[in-house]
């Protein structure tokens, strides 16, 4: 069974830990959400679709950089021209 001294120590530790706690409502440090008296702040976040598109674009750019470093510039340009003409007939 907890003695009054243990309760006092536990309460002091909880108060000390509050300094590192961020309220999920007002985004301020030092109190829990259920203790908050402030207004909810709007935090703009990009949509999941936008995040996925950004990740895909970064991956493509990384692959292009790897290909450029692998091939000499003249060979890379020729390869890029050939792959970029999908759907078009090659000139003979």
UniProtKB/TrEMBL annotation:
InterPro entries documented for this protein: ZCCHC10, Znf_CCHC_sf
SUPFAM superfamilies recorded: Retrovirus zinc finger-like domains (SSF57756)
Gene Ontology terms for molecular function: nucleic acid binding; zinc ion binding
Pfam families: zf-CCHC_3
Highest taxon in the source lineage: Eukaryota
UniProt xrefs under PANTHER family: ZCCHC10 PROTEIN, ZINC FINGER CCHC DOMAIN-CONTAINING PROTEIN 10
Protein name: Zinc finger CCHC-type containing 10
Species of the source: Piliocolobus tephrosceles (Ugandan red Colobus)
Gene of this entry: ZCCHC10
């Amino acid at each position: 069974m907890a003695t009054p001294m243990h309760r006092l120590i536990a309460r002091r530790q909880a108060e000390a830990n509050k300094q590192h706690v961020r309220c999920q409502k007002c985004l301020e440090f030092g109190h829990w959400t259920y203790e908050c008296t402030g207004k909810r702040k709007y935090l703009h976040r990009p949509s999941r679709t936008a995040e996925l598109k950004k990740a895909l674009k970064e991956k493509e750019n990384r692959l292009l950089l790897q290909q450029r470093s692998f091939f000499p510039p003249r060979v890379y340009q020729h390869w890029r021209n050939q792959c970029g003409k999908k759907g078009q007939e090659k000139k003979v």
